[in-house]
Amino acid sequence: MQPTLTVFYIASFFTVLLAFCFAAYLCAWVKSQKASNQKIEKVSALIKTGANTFMRKEYTVLAKFALVAAIIIFLLLPAPVWSGNVIDNIIMVIAYVAGTIFSAIAGKLGIFAATIANRKAAEAAKEGIKPAFLVGFRGGAVMGLAVVGSSLLGVVAVMLFTNDTTALLGFSFGASSLALFAKAGGGIFTKTADVSADLVGKVELGIPEDDPRNPAVIADNVGDNVGDVAGMGADLFDSNVASMTAALVMAVSLDQATDGAINTAMVLCYAALGLLSSVIGIATAKIGKNGNPTRALNSSTYVTTAVFVILTAAATAIFEGFRWEIWGASAVGLVVGVIIGIATDYFTDDTKPIVKNVARASRSGPAFTILSGVSYGFISCLPAMIGIAISALVAYNLCDGLGEGYAMFGISMAAVGMLSIVGMIISNDAYGPIVDNARGLAEMGELGDDVLRITDELDSAGNTVKAVTKGFAIGAAGLTVISMLGAYMSEVNAAAVELGKELLTGFDIMNPTVFFGMLVGAAIPAVFSAMLMLGVDRNAQRMVAEIHRQFKEIKGLKEGKEGVEPEYEKCIDIATKGALKELIPAGLVAIFATLVVGFIGGVSAVGGFLVGNIVSGLLLSLFMSNAGGLWDNSKKYVEAGNEGGKGSEAHKSAVVGDTVGDPFKDTAGPSINTQITVVSLVASLMSTLFLTVSIF
Amino acid sequence: MQPTLTVFYIASFFTVLLAFCFAAYLCAWVKSQKASNQKIEKVSALIKTGANTFMRKEYTVLAKFALVAAIIIFLLLPAPVWSGNVIDNIIMVIAYVAGTIFSAIAGKLGIFAATIANRKAAEAAKEGIKPAFLVGFRGGAVMGLAVVGSSLLGVVAVMLFTNDTTALLGFSFGASSLALFAKAGGGIFTKTADVSADLVGKVELGIPEDDPRNPAVIADNVGDNVGDVAGMGADLFDSNVASMTAALVMAVSLDQATDGAINTAMVLCYAALGLLSSVIGIATAKIGKNGNPTRALNSSTYVTTAVFVILTAAATAIFEGFRWEIWGASAVGLVVGVIIGIATDYFTDDTKPIVKNVARASRSGPAFTILSGVSYGFISCLPAMIGIAISALVAYNLCDGLGEGYAMFGISMAAVGMLSIVGMIISNDAYGPIVDNARGLAEMGELGDDVLRITDELDSAGNTVKAVTKGFAIGAAGLTVISMLGAYMSEVNAAAVELGKELLTGFDIMNPTVFFGMLVGAAIPAVFSAMLMLGVDRNAQRMVAEIHRQFKEIKGLKEGKEGVEPEYEKCIDIATKGALKELIPAGLVAIFATLVVGFIGGVSAVGGFLVGNIVSGLLLSLFMSNAGGLWDNSKKYVEAGNEGGKGSEAHKSAVVGDTVGDPFKDTAGPSINTQITVVSLVASLMSTLFLTVSIF
Questions:
Q1: B277, B157 in Cβ contact below 8 A?
Q2: Which of A486, A527, A619 sits opposite B522 (nearest CB)?
Q3: Does ipTM come in above 0.90?
Q4: Alpha carbons A154 and A152: distance in angstroms, whole number
Q5: Which residues between 483 and 542 in chain B have a beta carbon less than 8 angstroms from any beta carbon of chain A?
Q6: Which of A407, A467, A422 lies closest to A308, judged by CA?
Q7: Which of A277, A322, A271 is nearest to A168 (CA)?
Q8: Is residue A686 pLDDT above 80, yes or no?
Q9: What is the mean pLDDT of chain A?
Q10: Rounded to a whole number, what is the distance in Å from the CA of A488 to chain B's nearest CA?
Q11: Banded model confidence at residue A171, pLDDT cuts 50, 70, 90
Q12: B526/A601 CB distance under 8 A
């Protein structure tokens, strides 16, 4: 069978439609769950308002940023407006803005569902673990489906309207801009609130987590939503768009050479089947009455994986011209993604030896918690790095025989494969903050210890699964950026042809211009993440001062007098303003460094810059995410009564580890992904300029 | 003027002779200083015996390792013994063994002088800061001159006897093998003792540092010598030999093409002038009666730098055929080295803002000490990475016009330039542990508070300068390994010509085999340093148990009863055995990974592996060395009475930072250099095998 490309476009649209309908159904289902507790309603309204406030401010700042970016894009891209076609530049601007808007809408929908699901899940926990799990999971699934549906919709729409992959890069850049704000800004927000709430509440005053007297408690819950739900969603929206973009850039160029459309069709088909697999995986997720939520989450991931592999195999068998080698590449990517997830789990699951080792080391004091965590964090990078390396190598060699350019296309399809189940991944990931919030609401709504036990169990499953999904997300981003390197070279060569310059054949490490770029590029993720962490630190100091002020000035607050309430909004406000203020310099450093390297060393230096950035970025993000997860779970392991339990020396040390790990795993580590994508896209978009203006 | 190559060989020999004579004079001068305090004599004899015990054991294990390596070398290198010339293989073995022996002798001489200088410096401090400084500095200078003299001697001897640069690689590999043991093994030893002594002494029992009741106190002092004096010496011996080797490999191949010897002559000339400059710098080092030791150390470094630049300029003007472009490359290397040192100083000097920021953050608890230290540590990598990148770029572009192959030669000469003042650097560096020991001896010899104040000031200067020299050493190692990459390619192509295989033109990042190697290579320094740190941790636990045992079983020890002494040797024994036991797996992982990558992906994958290793290795070693220095000095800053001073919350947090920083800066960080060199040499030596046997 050999349908035309149009058929695949239409099929993609219908898949997106199906996903949206299903998401709407799930959202309605969650909304229809009963909720009656007044306290919970009140607090959850505060959370919702806080989240909306943050997102409104964030989007306002983003809008200004996007405006500046849009003007620059209009002036310079794809070619300077005074030298090229004005229409092309307008299309670029529209694509860019569409990228930010699509991602923003998906984030909004996700937050909307999540802030409903959290209170419904809290109340459902009164009935048992089964209904509570389903509410949490389905609330998260709305985010998953919204993100993947809208990313596929956006990509397909841009392709259909413009038939121009450079516009697709613009769309992808828009998505990255938003992800930078949502992930890094949200990451700073959530950790500011978390650290400050813990520092004053738990450490200074000794009041429990989620105690409503703590002025930062609502900000903390808001942070879960804006950092983990919206931030992670934007991050994966970005990765997903980037992987499809990179694959389409190469597919279109391969198709142009043969006057066909088969590779483009294949990318669309696989992307749509990935979304379909996620829909099936989500629909079949279930848990027994006393079932294990971790197992339930993992098993639906495996279902999605299997469905994707089978469906794509069927498509490859049915459609004439689809190559088995490319199917193999995507399957390898997916399988390696799962393996990376499992390896991450080994280093961060508290039933495995590593977490226990760190907990044991904590007995000797906080320095040993840190040293052992850093060490295991370093070691934990190895399996993922090898996994990414091998999947790239296998994908390349599988597809190399198909003709020139197919090898890099194979790598991009491995990334598409790895990201195919991203809908499922986001669902699992958004589940975490929903049930975490539910736990907080259950505490504040005084639903009793039985309910807390259930929400604790749901929360713990969220933490475990989070490590796996995070490893997966980093792995997928790694493969994506490798294929973006290919996209960068395609862009450079397209520009070189137009300018009549020499074509690039690659980036030779022995070329010192490349090497120069590489060393600078390698330092950027370190600087970027350091700036974010210092930002959290500064911001937390401001918030701690505010909490102290409230406890001092609001009479009866500390004693928990009836009717006395802290000024929650002030804390939310500090976290919001500070997050955006601290984020922008870090983002600018990364973008600015790309430009400086490009104008000094030209396109080769930028190639090296991207590689250095990818290599050190992958290493640092894996290290920070895994070490953070490890410390978090070590603390939980000690709190569960091991190594002396709560209040012991080991516990104090483990708390230090967790506090260090929080910005590692929730602010800096996962933001590096976005930084890499932003830098890759800036490089691709500026390639014409780097070709024409550079010192060396 | 255009003398023959022989003249340069002879001149090199005479420079070495001059350096050795000067070292002998300094050693005799130090020895002639008076010393009378019985207690100090006794303790310093213990330290000397301990250091000798460790080195004997270390050399025994090393001898076994070297035997295995020698057999493998005999069988396989430069070509399998059954296929090639047996004489060549025997030469390789001899060169390899000579590399280990030359380095070992230099280390022995240094330790010999250092263990005399420490007690003489303690007693000289009674007379004032000026004599004490001179004793400390000149004791360190013996090490500096011995290391640089014997490295130049070894390289010249190998070249003269074999006229074969592959044999030089063998010599360099020997030096690296020893450095791996001395630096990493010594690093584990010193931190095991330091951490254990502090943990039980200062934290548990509240007795002062260097208290003679503490069973680990001698081991701690021994550690300063074997880790910092011998380890750092072996590390820089290794870097120095590697930089000369890389430059000579390329010089000889350039000279062969033109049937000349001018480039080889230039390398020898510059190396000899570097040694001569260090002799002059050391000879002119002085301090006023109430002078500032930090300034004295730094100013002799600047003298050496200026002398080297002037002397090499003169040589370039005098000798026909010496190119100014190459002089420029070496000068750029040296200047950038100094700049890197100054940048490092900014991040680690307690009169600069960064150290103060970390001290202030410590008020909020240890988690903030760690977070801010990690963040600034990350940022501190940027100047050095840019510096290395720019010096490579400038050197390349300066020399690129001279003809094919000159560009990479220019980079190697930048490394030679950067390392030219290594004699001075080692002198400054060995000064640190000598005065640190002197402080301990003054305490144990009860020389009174005035003397302690002087030794404290000397010690503090040592710490400040150490950060600078460490940054310098890492920078130099960075440039060296870049030029070793060039040497690796030369070796591969030499082998390819013999085997009739295709020549390599470079390592293209877009080639997934290269990329595969790069990702794996990037993970290795992380794993290597993690294994060393975990080794320190495990070893410290053993020693803490031993200290506890002694305090429990030896009656009167805790109370400080007259005549009761701890069993110092037991602690030394534990540190020694543990260090060697923990080191070997880490070293093998690095070597084994190189082999696996080579046999999977062949020479291109190994090229990528080396690059990944260099990039992430530089980043991590800069990060760990600088963060460690930063924490150390933050603690000292707090102890000087800031942020609440000793005993405050900030102090407790700063101590945690220092404890984390110790293995960072003294074990893992600087050992990564050696790991990179070892891996580069293994790659060069095995290139023929990788060419013939590989999967992809």
A1: no
A2: A619
A3: no
A4: 5
A5: 485-486, 489, 505-520, 522-523, 526-527, 529-531, 533-534, 536-537, 541
A6: A422
A7: A271
A8: yes
A9: 86
A10: 11
A11: very high
A12: no
Residue A1 has a pLDDT of 63
- Decide which of A467 and B308 is more confident: B308
- Give which of A579, A601, A548 is closest to A663, Cα–Cα: A579
Chain B closest-CA separation from residue A577 CA (Å):
21
pLDDT at A96 over 80: yes
Residues of A whose CB is below 8 A from B395: 512
pLDDT tier at A274, thresholds 50, 70, 90: very high
Which stretch of A237-241, A305-309, A392-396, B284-288 has the lowest confidence by average pLDDT?
B284-288
Q: Is the pLDDT of residue A451 over 80?
A: yes
Residue A311 is which amino acid?
L
**CB distance from B601 to chain A under 8 Å?**
yes
Distance separating alpha carbons of residues A86 and A74, to the nearest angstrom: 8
- Where on the phi/psi map is residue A493: left (φ > 0), alpha (ψ -120 to 50), or beta? alpha
The pLDDT of residue A519 is: 93
Amino acid (1-letter code) at residue A397: N
Q: What is the CA radius of gyration of chain B?
A: 24
Using the structure block, give the residue that is written with the tokens 């239409």: A10
Cross-chain residue pair B530–A378, CB shorter than 8 Å = yes
Q: Give B-chain residues touching A675 at CB under 8 angstroms.
A: none
Q: Which residues of A touch B518 (CB under 8 A)?
A: 389, 611, 615
Show the low-confidence residues of chain B (pLDDT under 70). Answer: 1-2, 84, 696
Cross-chain CB nearest to A378 (options B509, B519, B529) = B529
Q: Report H helices in B77-199.
A: 86-124, 129-162, 165-179, 186-197
Q: Which residues of B231-248 are buried (b: 16+ CB within 10 A; e: fewer)?
A: bbbbbbbbbbbbbbbbbb
Distance of CA A84 to the CA centre of its chain: 36
The number of C-beta contacts closer than 8 angstroms across A and B is: 237
Whether pLDDT at A545 is above 70 = yes
For the cut 80, the answer to whether the pLDDT of residue A402 exceeds it is: yes
Residue pair B410/B323 in contact by the 8 Å Cβ criterion: no
Domain ranges of chain A: 5-692
Contacts of A389 in chain B (CB under 8 A): 515-520
Contacts of B390 in chain A (CB under 8 A): 516
